[in-house]
Design brief:
By secondary structure, the chain is an alpha/beta fold. Helix content is about 45%, strand content about 15%. The protein contains 22 helices and 20 strands. It has a seven-stranded mixed beta sheet with strand order 9-15-14-13-12-10-11, sandwiched between helices. Strands 2-1-3-5-4 form a five-stranded parallel beta sheet, sandwiched between helices. α4 packs parallel to α5 and α11 packs across α16. The longest helix is centred in the last third of the chain and has 23 residues. The structure holds pyridoxal-5'-phosphate. Pyridoxal-5'-phosphate (PLP) binds next to α11.
Length: about 550
């Protein structure tokens, strides 16, 4: 067992006795002090020891001050620390068996004999693992999610209430919004960190403000990790969102009036791919490409013919609602055939690309843009990857061309996200997102729903609910009432307006983050089918809503 021990002046003699006892048992112990009778502040020592446990560098810690109170108050502020102040052997036994305590706090005023008996009991008692104790500890750890916004509770009760409402919604509903995910606590912490206080116009090492060393380090880490994750020559991590990333590329290499060949919004493309209500459609000559009416998948031959006819300067691949694998080598060949540049907007599939569950566009495109908050599971933001020859133009366009000060707190959170995405567990996550999507699609198909293009290769599917006599709007509202959150979506060649639609879009990124697998997907698919069988059946919606809450209680949101 790897232990750390620390005390203040009130616990020095007890620490010396415990250290000798631990040495006699052959324990590995790191002594963090104090080593003299001079008065010191307990918090300094408790912080060091608690950090060691939080970071996983020690299995457990022992802290001693005169009463034990200051040490336990301090240690318990750290994530994952369960510090127990024990002044009796019985308390030490329960602290381990019931609370799985990992920090033993002792009072220096207790006799040496009693103190050593407490330490021995603490070290020798395993956690019972009984379900009631497991459940209670889970609830204890869960309280952190509420404690995390406790300053807000006092400072702004109204906004605090909205955060609590979001927490409650996430806890008790199934989130199938294909463009959303549920980030880790580490990503949330970086997003909400003091890095928000810093102005840092420019780039690492070349800023317009002093005092940028910490944010320079954060931004350099984000850049290096993004390049490593996607195998790109250059990364600009500053775009505030996916739309800004796309704007960065357009403004770096196009002039107003230039031609862009891109997927139209009503077929699955994004607003920034040339919608008339967006800057892209207003500034550039947009030629939209569509899916095949028969297969509802991209027809690359038709795309090539259109490219040859219209000679675009830029071809945009990528979509917000396309369930099939994108053929990047084919896009490259088409671009080469007409002398166009290729930009891939991988916003939806970036996490799948990072985890190897979708082919990477990076070897094929001059530019790859993405959001960082969808399948990639990072903070809300954008990212541009490009070939070295475009690096300067992209950087100059993002700043000072389009933005002022970068959001360094968000950039730090992007760095955290990229690090997470580089881990083997993220690879497994990405594969599971697709496996879950296929399982959900199979259940819906078996229950008589038509999926656009006949199924899915990625994290999302489009369900044509019009074939079941419904509109997307009504279907999404009925599911919402049952605790199943998705969005209405146009389907290719939709005859309904974008406000009504003939489809719903469903994605598995968030439920997979929660740990759900194929079995839960079958359950959710059957709930969806049951609700859509009669959207006026409010009793059924209530029943499913309760079942959803029971299921989600077993898959806690991070
Ligand atoms: N590109 C695609 C393909 C998207 O789906 C989205 C968002 O849904 C964006 C770009 C824009 O991202 P943001 O909302 O961050 O501007």
């Amino acid at each position: 067992m790897n232990l750390v021990i620390a005390c203040d002046h009130g616990g020095l003699s007890a620490k010396n006795a415990i250290s000798a006892f631990l040495a006699s048992r052959g324990c590995t112990v790191t002594d963090l002090g104090t080593d003299t009778e001079a008065a010191v502040d307990y918090a300094d020592f408790a912080v060091q020891a608690a950090e060691t446990v939080t970071e996983g560098k020690a299995d457990a810690a022992i802290l001693i001050c005169k009463t034990g109170i200051g040490m336990s108050l301090t240690a318990n502020r750290f994530a994952g620390v369960r510090a127990a102040l024990c002044v009796s052997v019985e308390a030490a036994q329960k602290a381990r068996a019931h609370n799985d305590s990992n920090v033993l706090v002792l009072a220096g005023s207790v006799s040496e004999e009693e103190t050593l008996a407490i330490v021995r009991t603490f070290l020798d008692t395993p956690f019972s693992g009984e379900p009631r104790h497991v459940r209670r500890i889970a609830k204890l750890e869960r309280a952190e999610r509420l404690a995390e916004v406790s300053f807000l509770a006092a400072a702004d009760p109204e906004i605090h209430a909205t955060v609590l409402a979001q927490i409650a919604q996430e806890d008790s509903t199934v989130n199938l919004i294909a463009s959303e995910n549920t980030v880790t606590r580490a990503v949330r912490e970086a997003s909400g960190s003091v890095l928000t206080n810093k102005y840092a116009e420019g780039y690492p090492g070349k800023r317009w403000y002093s005092g940028c060393i910490p944010v320079d380090t954060a931004e350099q880490l984000a850049i290096a990790r993004a390049k490593q994750l996607f195998g790109a020559d250059h990364a600009n991590v500053q775009p505030h969102c996916g739309s800004a990333a796309n704007m960065g590329v357009y403004f770096a290499v196009l002039k107003p009036g230039d031609t862009i060949l891109s997927m139209s919004l009503d077929q699955g493309g994004h607003l920034t791919h040339g919608s008339p209500v967006n800057f892209s459609g207003q500034l550039f000559n947009i030629v939209p490409y569509r899916v095949s009416r028969e297969t509802e998948a991209l027809d690359y031959d038709a795309l090539e013919a259109l490219a040859k006819e219209t000679k675009p300067k830029l071809i945009v691949a990528g979509a917000s609602a396309y369930p099939r694998t994108l053929d990047f080598p084919r896009f490259r060949a088409i671009a080469d055939a007409v002398g166009a540049m290729l930009m891939v907007d991988m916003a939806h599939i970036a996490g799948l690309v990072a985890g190897g569950a979708h082919p990477s566009p990076v070897p094929y495109a001059e530019f790859v843009t993405t959001t960082t908050h969808k399948t990639l599971r990072g903070p809300r933001g954008g990212l541009i990857l490009c070939r070295e020859e475009f690096a300067k133009a992209i950087d100059k366009t993002v700043f000072p061309g389009l933005q002022g000060g970068p959001l360094e707190n968000i950039i730090a959170a992007k760095a955290v996200c990229f690090r997470e995405a580089l881990s083997p567990s993220f690879k497994a996550y990405a594969q599971q997102v697709v496996a879950n999507s296929k399982a959900l699609a199979a259940t819906l198909a078996a229950r008589g729903f038509h999926l656009v293009s006949g199924g899915t290769d990625n994290h999302l599917m489009l369900v044509n609910v019009a074939r079941n006599g419904l509109t997307g709007k009504d279907a999404a509202a009925a599911l919402d009432a049952a605790g199943i959150i998705c969005n209405k979506n146009t389907i290719p060649f939709d005859t309904n307006s974008p406000f009504v639609t003939s489809g719903i879009r469903i994605g598995t990124a968030s439920v997979t983050t929660r740990g759900m697998k194929e079995a839960e997907m079958a359950t959710i698919g059957n709930w969806i089918a049951d609700i859509l069988a009669d959207i006026t059946n409010t009793a059924k919606q209530e029943t499913v809503c309760a079942e959803v809450a029971t299921l989600t209680a077993q898959f806690l949101v991070p």
